[in-house]
Amino acid sequence: MVKHIVLFKLKDQADRQKAIEVLSSMKGMIEGMIDLEVGEDFLASERSYDIALITAHTDRAALDFYQAHPVHQPVKKVMHAIRESSIAVDFEVNQL
Fold first, then answer.
1. Any idea what the Cα angle at residue 55 is, between residues 32 and 24, rounded to 5°?
2. Among 25, 48, 47, 29, which residue's Cα sits nearest to residue 38?
3. What phi and psi values does residue 5 have, to the nearest 5 degrees?
4. Pairing of strands 33-40, 2-10
5. What is the enclosing helix (H) or strand (E) of 8?
6. What is the pTM of this model?
7. Helix or strand or coil: residue 27?
């Protein structure tokens, strides 16, 4: 299994709900995506980001499929427009 984590810092805090809705809209829509979670930061510290996206995929091929998927493309477009910055990490989960 592969985890994909993206943190978004928004240009305008008024876009929080929009970000949550657009990211959540992908849940159950892309083959090979096992899970999708969206979280909103509540701490608002100096180093905090505003929104977290965490997805789980069956394998690296499924992550690649997600990146190019037609459902993901308009979501990327919206998030690129409303984000100030984003960071990501992708890793394989070792299941014992």
1. 100
2. 25
3. -125, 125
4. unpaired
5. strand 2-10
6. 0.94
7. coil
